[in-house]
Specification:
It contains twelve helices and 33 strands. By secondary structure, it is α+β, with helices and mostly antiparallel strands.
């Protein structure tokens, strides 16, 4: 049997009546109730006594009378859902944007009410309401505290364009088929938002309604966080700064729409991620993840679109065993695989008859130094004049630390530091090609002729290479020609611009 505490107070008719003390109890044992009654008597300066709940007056009649005579402020007329029996729900006396109600019989006896926001009250006791009805009811209690949810790409776009300032707001100009935030509208994530008394969007955040999670808030952080948490959502961040989350404080497993930009293959519309690390490619959509996918054939992913609102897909290269931009992959004959451009630079080359890509181990080098596929080499006569091409020294790589210096990093052929220019395989002796110069790549290919006289040689590096016990061939003109082609291929891969007129730049 439970017990509660009362004070004895006059009722206006000269009678002393029990008035429950709502802040204490109920108590399972009478001895506990008596002990606390003694302490409160001394604290309050008036008599406090324990009572059995079973002997209490009718609390339901008391609450009904209070609602009827205006002691309790009723919910507004727009709150047109069927009342919960024995709740006697009303507006809280100290904060009319919250709902006060009697949660159970024992709390009713001691006159204690539970206080919830309108949104949380609806979530707990009216879970089947549709979103529109729910929003109208919340607005009837607290217009500025109401949380709305944008779920479609069109709704989400409007909230970002018209809402708080950010890198994705309406002041930006994105040359994309849709607004960068449209991928959020795939069905799992939503954008929660609030409006002020003037109807303007005052705050927003990305959330996951099914998992009751929400992330970084833009706008009125305190009000938005309080409203979201009152509706049962959990804030997944350490703080609300741009760096206020960790690898584990992100949305994991949510779908995103897969929307190509239509400009470059494997380039997709993607927003700036605040609470997403990676998005795995699932074919017709993406799924958010905490880590990159497992390295295997066919695996691909995408990252944040940054402030540009777009991002390139990355896919697994079976040759280099790593992820590389998906737009750089090409089919390689002989192994029937698609390799990234870096793998092609290092491990393959084009057949100079068909233009097909083949691994070096498949290519055959003719007497004239040209590289051809096995199919093209079959007609060569006599057979003795063809030889299988082994893997050459590592293809040279272009690197540099500032805009006016490029280093060709190869164990044999290196370009020295010539200040504002580099000199290598010149079209004619003593012609310098400055970083930033434009040149016709096809004309350059036709006129390149590398000899020991017009290629800058790092003598010490060359001698170290010659002393290498693994070296089985001498430096001959064919070798120089081969290295020249490799240098040219590396430059073409790493420069930017039109494929016919290219621009050299430092890495």
């Amino acid at each position: 049997m439970s017990f509660f505490l009362v004070t004895l107070e006059p009722d206006g008719k000269g009678n002393m009546v029990d008035v429950p003390i709502p802040d204490y109890g109920p108590y399972d044992k009478g001895s506990d109730a008596a002990k606390h009654a003694k302490v409160l008597t001394e604290k309050l300066g008036r008599k406090v006594q324990p009572r059995r709940i079973a002997q209490a007056a009718d609390w339901r009649a008391r609450q009904a009378q209070r609602l009827a005579d205006g002691t309790l402020k009723p919910l507004p007329a727009k709150w047109d859902v069927k009342p919960i029996k024995d709740h006697f729900a009303h507006l809280h006396a100290d904060d009319v944007t919250n709902i006060a109600f009697t949660e159970n019989d024992e709390l009713g006896v001691i006159d204690r009410v539970t206080i919830l926001t309108a949104g949380r009250y609806l979530s707990r006791f009216y879970p089947d309401l549709d979103n529109d009805k729910r929003n109208k009811l919340i607005a009837a209690i607290d217009p500025s505290g109401e949380v709305y949810y944008a779920t479609t790409p069109e709704e989400i776009t409007r909230i970002y364009k018209e809402g708080p300032s950010s890198c994705m707001d309406g002041s930006k100009n994105f040359n994309l088929p849709v607004w960068p935030t449209a991928p959020y509208g795939a069905g799992d994530l939503a954008v929660a938002y609030q409006v002020n008394a003037r109807g303007r969007i005052q705050s927003r955040c990305v959330c996951w309604p099914a998992k009751k999670q929400f992330g970084r808030v833009f706008g009125d952080f305190q009000r938005m966080r309080a409203s979201m948490e009152s509706e049962g959502f959990t804030y997944i961040r350490t703080d609300n700064s741009v760096d206020g989350n960790s690898s584990s404080e992100c949305f994991d497993g949510a779908r995103l729409l897969k929307i190509p930009t239509g400009r470059v293959e494997h380039e997709y519309v993607m927003p700036y991620f605040d609470d997403i690390k990676f998005a795995l490619d699932m074919g017709d959509h993406f799924v958010t993840a905490l880590e990159k996918p497992e390295g295997k054939l066919g695996a691909s992913y995408i990252t944040t679109g940054s402030t540009a609102g777009k991002s390139d897909m990355y896919r697994w290269c079976p040759k280099l065993k790593n992820f590389h931009p998906a737009s750089h992959f090409r089919h390689v004959h002989g192994v029937n695989e698609e390799w990234c451009q870096e793998a092609i630079n290092i491990h393959g080359a084009q057949c100079e008859v068909t233009g097909e890509l083949w691994p070096y181990s498949f290519l055959v080098e003719r007497d004239d130094g040209s590289l051809v596929s096995p199919n093209c080499a079959e007609g060569d006569k006599p057979k003795a004049k063809t030889k299988k091409r082994g893997r050459p020294p590592r293809a040279p790589r272009i690197s540099g630390t500032h805009a006016d210096l490029v280093i060709i990093d190869d164990p044999i052929i290196r370009a020295a530091d010539w200040g504002d220019a580099i000199e290598y395989c010149p079209i004619e002796p003593n012609i310098n090609i400055n970083v930033g110069d434009q040149f016709d790549a096809h004309a350059f290919n036709r006129h390149v002729s590398a000899t020991l006289e017009n290629v800058v040689i790092d003598r010490e590096a060359m001698m170290d290479f010659l002393r290498s016990p693994s070296l089985t061939e001498t430096i001959q003109q064919q070798h120089i020609d081969r290295m020249t082609r490799q240098i040219d291929e590396a430059i073409e891969v790493q420069v930017v611009g039109d494929p016919f007129v290219r621009r050299i730049r430092a890495a």
